[in-house]
Structures are given as C-alpha cells and as structure tokens.
Amino acid sequence: MEMGDVGDAVRLAMASMTYPQYEDPDDVGAYWAAVERTRVMGGDVLVAEIDHEVVGLCQVMVLAHFQHTGGWCCEVETVHVRADVRNRGVGTALLEAAEALARERGCYRIQLTSNITRPDAHRFYERQGYTPSHQGFKKYLA
Asked: What DSSP string describes 35-95?
C-alpha cells in the first residue's frame, strides 16, 4: 500500500463493513499511521488494484505468540474485495500474498476471523484451505 491508496482503501472497506460509521476516509494520516505501525511489527497492509483502482485489501499482522515456543503467528484482518470484482481471483491473490509474507516472516500459522453474517466469505476461506476451528468474541471498549 502507498499513502495515495489509503482513502480509496478505507472507502472500499466501508462498503462492506458492519459499522462503517466509525470510519473517516478523509483522515488519511490516521490510517497511514496504522500502516506504518503494522510494518514496524513485521506485517503490512496489502492492496489489490485493477486499472490503477484499489479493488481489494487486507491487513497482515505478525505477532509473537506465547504458544508454539514463542513462535511467530500471522493474523489477517480487514479482508475486503469490491463487490463487482468478486470471483475474479482478487481475494485469492490477496490471501496468497498474505501467506507469502507470513512464510517470509517465519510464521508457523496464519489465521483470520470473519463476521458470522458472511457465509459467502466463509465458503471462500474454506476453499482457500482455512478451516473453522474456534468461535471468536469481541467486546468494544469505546
């Protein structure tokens, strides 16, 4: 991702988010700071483009895991593909790039969560080799 992609990436994510009201695509600096922090920790925010337009994105976070002898683990978040280009390989390319980054960083596992209201996304992840293994919980603090 480049700084010039940030506003388009945020708008893309907002189009399929459950709570888009918490986003501000005009505050490019805040999102760019998140990209930089993610990179400092060994991850990245990846974008997919078609004809110089952002059509997909995902955030790849790398963290030291207390389990697996303190091994590196990869968490994929904010996976979004523009609705009109779904089923054209964009999501697959993003996940392949995320997995390549995780391998490069020495991660023993890659994982992601997906909103329970998105069964099409769940089928897609399963086709990519991800298996449902845990039930997630969230609690918003603000």
From this structure: HHHHHHTT-EEEEEEETTEEEEEEEEEEEE-SHHHH-EEEEEEEEEE-GGGTTTTHHHHHH
CATH code of the domain covering residue 84: 3.40.630.30
| Contact present, 56 and 94 (Cβ < 8 Å) | yes
The H-or-E segment that residue 80 falls in is strand 72-81
- Whether 57 is in a domain gets the answer yes
Count of domains forming the chain = 1
Range of the domain at 111: 3-127
Residue 19 pLDDT more than 80?
Answer: no
DSSP state of 51: T
Q: What is d(CA 142, CA 58) in angstroms, rounded to the nearest whole number?
A: 24
Cα–Cα separations (whole angstroms), residue 106 to 42, 65, 133? 10, 12, 22
Residue 136 belongs to a domain:
no
State the burial class of residue 64 (Cβ atoms within 10 Å of its Cβ: 0-12, 13-18, 19+): exposed
- Per-residue pLDDT tens for 43-69? 999 999 999 999 999 999 999 999 999
